[in-house]
Amino acid sequence: MLTTQAFPTIRAIQRDAWNDCFPGALEDWDYYLAVENAAIDDFQWRYLAVFDDETLVAVAAAFITHYRLDTTVSGAGKRLTERLDRLWPGALQLALYAIGSPVAERCDAGVASHVPKARRPLLLQQLLAAARADADQLGIGLVAVKDAPTNDPHWAESCRAAGFQNMPSLPTGVLPLPYGSVDAYLGSLGKSTRKDLRRKLRAPGPRVEWRRNIDDVLPEVMRLYEATLTRADLQFERLPAGYFTQVLEQLNERAVCVLYWVGEHLVAFNLILLDEHRLVDKFFGHDIQFSREYNLYFRSWLTNVDYCIQHKIPLYECGQAGYASKLRLGCEFQGNSLFFRHRNRLVNGLLKLVKLFIRPDRSDPAMAAAISET
């Protein structure tokens, strides 16, 4: 007999049982514990579990927040919604219960290794029902699935059966690296991009330092983080200092922070998760005053590419931003979908209309190109 339960902490689920549902995941039980310990403002965590009698058979992370409907909008569209928000404060914000995580690369539901794959659609339905029931108990009308892989038919089928609407979400950039050297990678790019990157590489660069502890430079790291966040068009969450320190502490050898120095000045940092299969770029923060002179973004990109090639890591996962640059740099894109339903029919109908105007591919041509590729 299948039963479901929602927990407020991942500690309520045994570490090995959770990880068995996500074999090989970098964002595993330890990562979610780090996120929980970081105490990110404006988010509450939920962990959904499906049991067959007393045996755990499926799990999913979830969160509660107040969601701005224009979170994935940029450019002229963002300016329009910000004007609307000034005229009608709170009009674009709703309480949200979402399966997924604001600080995970994609949403997934983990199924225990002993469970036949054919049962996964049923277990997804159970998780969706558990989310709806938990949201109802908490008085939240809007339930969503954030960044479900577009190529996962089980999510689409289960959400459609539950009456969810869907729209494109931000695609995830990935760079396969079957190259023997950085020069070979550069040779795979377009002529103008290749020429530009080689010119940048010839210029003096910052000193690069790989760290697994940043306590002594944490104030400088947070200064760079806040400055970068202020310039960002798309940002869902604001990370506290504890996020960076907890991830490095909990994940041990699977997390590193790359620091970039000009003299005694810390001018950029890059938080990375990695194993033998992939390198995941979690956050890049930089000082705009040094960025142009030292080409910090492209230096960081090529540093990561070089590390992957040197350590025979076949995939560089580079997140959900900067699509214009990533198109030039040879990235491929994995499509993501956002599914949602409000229990109030009138609000749900209004959201169906609103989504026509707040789709992410409406406001950013590069993002639209990345979405169309998926």
Keywords:
374 residues, alpha+beta, Aminopeptidase, 2 domains, eight-stranded mixed beta sheet, seven-stranded mixed beta sheet
Describe the structure.
The protein is α+β, with helices and mostly antiparallel strands. It folds into two domains: 2-171 and 335-373, Gcn5-related N-acetyltransferase (GNAT) (Aminopeptidase, 3-Layer(aba) Sandwich), CATH 3.40.630; 174-333, Aminopeptidase (3-Layer(aba) Sandwich), CATH 3.40.630. The chain has helices at residues 15-21, 29-38, 75-87, 120-137, 153-161, 182-187, 191-202, 218-231, 241-251, 288-294, 296-310, 323-328, 345-358, 365-373; strands spanning 2-7, 44-52, 55-68, 93-99, 110-111, 142-149, 165-168, 172-176, 207-211, 255-262, 265-274, 278-286, 315-319, 332-334, 336-342. Strands 1, 2, 3, 4, 5, 6, 7 and 15 form an eight-stranded mixed β-sheet that branches. The protein has a seven-stranded mixed β-sheet with strand order 9-10-11-12-13-8-14, with helices on both faces. A hairpin with a 2-residue loop joins strand 2 (44-52) and strand 3 (55-68). The longest helix is centred in the middle third of the chain and has 18 residues, at 120-137. The protein is globular and about 65 Å long. It starts with a strand and ends with a helix. It comes from Pseudomonas libanensis. Pfam families: Acetyltransf_6. This is BioF2-like acetyltransferase domain-containing protein. Residues 192-317 form the BioF2-like acetyltransferase domain.
